[in-house]
Structure formats: C-alpha cells, structure tokens
Automatic annotation (TrEMBL):
CDD domains: DEXHc_RecG, RecG_wedge_OBF, SF2_C_RecG. GO terms for biological process: DNA recombination; DNA repair. This is ATP-dependent DNA helicase RecG. GO terms for molecular function: 3'-5' DNA helicase activity; ATP binding; ATP hydrolysis activity; DNA binding.
Amino acid sequence: MSASGAAVPIRAPEALRKKLAKIGLHSEADLLVHLPLRYEDETRLTPVARAPWGEAVQVEVVVSSCEVQFRPRRQMVVRALDDSGELTMRFFSFYPSQQAVFAVGARVRAFGEVRSGFFGAEMVHPRFRKVDAETPLPTEMTPVYPSTAGVANSALQKLIGKALAVGDLAETLPDEVRQSLKLPGLARSLRFLHQPPPGTDLDTLHARNHPAWRRVKFDEVLAQQLSLRRAYLARREQGAPVLVARDDLGARLLDQLPFGLTGAQLRAMAEIADDLAQPYPMQRLLQGDVGAGKTIVAALAACQAISAGWQAAFMAPTEILAEQHYLKLKDWLAPLGVEVAWLSGSLKSKAKREQLAATAAGAQLVVGTHALIQDGVDFARLGLAIVDEQHRFGVAQRLALRKKGGNPHQLMMSATPIPRTLAMSYYADLDVTVLDELPPGRTPIKTRLVADSRRDDVVGFVRKLVEEGRQAYWVCPLIEESEALQLQTAQDTYETLLADLPGLTVGLVHGRLKADEKQAVMAAFAAGEIDVLVATTVIEVGVDVPNASLMVIEHAERFGLSQLHQLRGRVGRGQYESSCVLIYAGPLGEIARQRLKIIFENTDGFEIARQDLQIRGPGEFVGARQSGVPLLRYADLELDADLVEMARTVAEEMLARHPQLAERHLERWLGSREELLKA
C-alpha cells in the first residue's frame, strides 16, 4: 500500500507477474503477508560425519569426483569430502550447467536430508551452490514459501526482501488495542517471520505459536470481521418493508396446531418478529438440529409478512423437500384463507403459467425450488424470502432471490449445525438464532454399526420390526461420479429386498422419478401403505413419518457426517423406540473410520459439527458460501477461537472510532477480494 492506501503493484517482468497472480500475489502488500510454509537453517554447517540421518542439514564439501552413470538408471553421482568424512550426492534430473559446478576440487555447500547409502552418508537432490573458503553464512533462517510452477523460492525471497525494505509496514491497529491485547508490532512481526534470526527455535515457528504468528493471525481474522461487519452495517442503511401484523393470522395458526411451541421456538419467533418490524432488511440465520421445529417458526414469520400485506417466498434446494414444505404449509395455512402457490421446474406448461400468474397477482405465500429465481418469475410485493438448507445454495442464488423483491427481509435456515467459532467467523454478517431444544416426543435413536457381511441379520431385523407394525427406510449410497450408478444401486437394492422380504410392501423413490410419482410414493409411505422405503439421499431432509422407526444406511462410509446425522433424524419422530443401522464395507480408510466413530458416539448435532470441522476444515464445511468468504490462511478456528472473539469486538470499535485505519487494514489483507463478501 502507498501512503494513500492504494495497492502498489509488484515490480517484476510481466511473465513473472502473471505467475505470481496465480497464487494471489498482485501487490507489494500481498507479498508482505505471503508468509513462509516452513524454514530451513542454513546459518550453520554440520560436519558430514556428525550429520544425523533423516534430518536436513547443510554441509560444506570439496568435490573429489563427478560422473554420469547409466545403471540402474541415468544419474549424476558426485563424491565429495570435508575434514570429517565423505558424502555421496545423487541427481536423477540434471543439466550440463549443473555438472560444471561439480568440477573436481570445487567447494560446494549442499542442503538436504542425509540418509544411509551404499557408500555411507548420501544426499539425493540436495540444494547446492558453489562457494569459496571466505563465503559468509546467511545470518537468517531460509524461508520456504508457498509457490506455483515456474516461481523459484529464491525469486520469492528476493521480491519479499525488497517489499520488506521499501513496502508499507505502517501499523493499522490503534495503539491502545495493541497494548491491551499484548500483541507485538506488525512491522517487527512480519520481519521476524520472513527473516528469523539465527538461533530461533524452528519448532515454535513451525507450530505457529510464536507471538509474531499470533499477531499475524489476529490481523487476518480482524480483516475478515471488519469486512463482514461493514457489509452488515451497510445493509442496515438500506430500506426494507416494515412488516407489522395487522391481524391475528399467526395466533390462529398456533391455535389449530396439535402441538405447542418450545421455549427455543418462542424465543426465535420473538427475535424474528422484532427484525421484520424494522425499516432495514433482516438477514437472519435460523439453525437447529434435525427435528428442532424450524418450519413452524418460518411459517409464523411468513404469517407476519402476509398479515402486513406483503408476500413471502419459501425456497428449498430439492424438489422433494420443496414439495413437502408446500404440502405442509398449505395444510396449515390454506384453511386460514392464505393463498399458497407452488413453483418447480417439473410443472407442466399450463400449471406453470397459472402459478406464475398467481405469483405476479399477489399469492401470499409462494413455495418452490430455485425455479423461484428464474427469469419470468415476478412477485407483486415480496416482503420476506425464506431459504431452507441455505448452505446448499450458492451466494449468487441467494442474491437473485433478494433481487426479485427489491429488498425483502431474508430468513435462512440450516439443519446442519454450525460450530460456534465457525458461525462467529464465517457468518459474522448475519444475526444467528439457534433452536437448542427438541420438541417433546422425540425419542432417542440407537445407532448400530454393522459390517456388510452381516446384511442378512439387518434384513431379519427389518422383517421383525414391520411385523410389529413399524416402517423402515433403506437408504442407498451417494455415488458422486454417476447419477446413473446411484440409480442402479437403488434399483438393485429394491429388487433384492423384494426377494428377501416376501409378503412386505417395498417402495422405491429417487431423484429421476417425476414429481407426481415421487409424491405418490411418499404419500403411500406416510399413509402406512409401504413397509420399507428404498431411497437415494432425496429423503435427506424434511421427511416426517412418525411410524418409521428404523433407518438403514448402506455403505455408510461413503457419506459425510452431516448427511448421516440428517438421515438418522428421519426416524425417532413418533413414540416408538427408533434405530439407525449403518452398514459399512471394509477396509475402512482413516477418515471414514473417524466419521463412523463420531456418529456412533454422538447424537448432538452441534458436537458432531464441531468434530466434523476438525476433520474437514472450515473451507469445505461452509460449502457454497465459501465463494463469498475469504478462507483463513493462517488462523485456525479451533486453536485460535479466542482471536475470533477478540477480533469481533475490535472490528466494531475500529469501524466506529478509527474508520481510516479499518480501511487500510482491509486493503492490506483483502485487497480486491473484499468485493466477494458483499453477497
């Protein structure tokens, strides 16, 4: 950054600049925060005879011979000596210019891992350079940077060295903040991390728990919090319809329900009702474990919008889930005089035209898939957009729904619990409401792990259960490479179970069925006409059949933790004891073994999510949203959770009291990437 805060481009030949751009290096500021992956100690020499095997060291030797051998494969073999002993160096890839360096009598410094070879100590492909007896040793550790093809580590070292000498290292943290958090200065921290002095403990540097690393991590997390907080405040400046209920529609809906709301649902409803009555757009994430009752909270929010004279839209990621929501909401609201429209990609032309006309004319609640955001869908007065399983939609899709209505309030829902540190970091631009209690009547689910060699025992268990009057799901694996393969697996399982369970009614549902066929199968299962439902993961969310008390998941090792937890949550919805049987095929990989252990030992979605985060890392966890949020390069959400807490507080204070410093901090850490956050 220059004194004005503008980014200073990297001064390098154009070909090199293009390569640097591939790893996100465009400016001097980018170079300054492009930190080493690891360090190598070239500040000292180790005698050959004392070099520990298996460790990387630097030796200084004189070449005694250099020859190209052709057996067992073409290689350059260099033998060299120091006062303590002999070293062999092997190169399987080499050029004539490199051969020239190893002339007999030449003095060479080599850095690499020493191992036991046929002739004693040996290095394969060490880093080397020609020196003379007076060549001084480096005075700093050698940093090794993340790079891309065609950019040598030495080139990065030179560019970063120049940036450290002339670049902008001005402090962006207010002095009082830095002192209260006991953080070292930025310039000192960056110089230390790029050029650690001799004698620095490399273990502390590699573990990234040195105070200089802590300062860098804090600055990175602060940039993320500043950006998200600024987006949050900018939304507060925008106008949105004030949705104050003019009648008792919500109260009438509650009166006709066969159940009461939990304390968590009542709290969530109060928060949402308050948001909807504000003149700026609500941006709230409603999250709760499987079966926590998010749909009724969303329905009551829709009632408030409808009572205020506006429309509500409800978007779900799959047709089967959207249709279940449509039927449930219609069942609840149509008797109260609410017009509920349905939009999906599979509607026939005539039905689609009718539903589009109803939407444009002001149908009070419109339920659908991403068909809601396609061209030609016009809302008369969209006041509230509800997005279910929001992590399954990309940033652009959520934005498109918001644009449909000018600036409606947005309620996003997720049954994939987000660990607290992740919510604080990646969802800092949203208000988050958590449904942390399950409605009464949810029975605990027993989870069993069964090897696929015992499949017959599972079939016997299914038969016994159905004879007792219960129903079962049998879910087939998700085979990502091929929808056709997945379909075939479901079809084969269906035919096998038909043969294995004579006298029982077995149904089949998958993504390729037409909407009305899918609905007919689901309705038959809900009515108890189907005993065992074979399904692909289309039934992952939203299906509610109280009499189904067994979930069998085949090839459970192929599923992610959140999917396994979601599928397990399809049972235990009635008063019967429920089970989830996870059939797995060996041998299991380490991650599959970890996943199955976690799902077997835990029923709390938030604990499962926390452990899932440890396995997968945050980037994969937040899914489609990551296209709108910069991933953290240096901070670790599990290890550095306290930094996220501190950065949230500091971000609010800086935006209020030090806006110019906040601007310069963002420019240094995010540069052009900040635009992505606006979604």
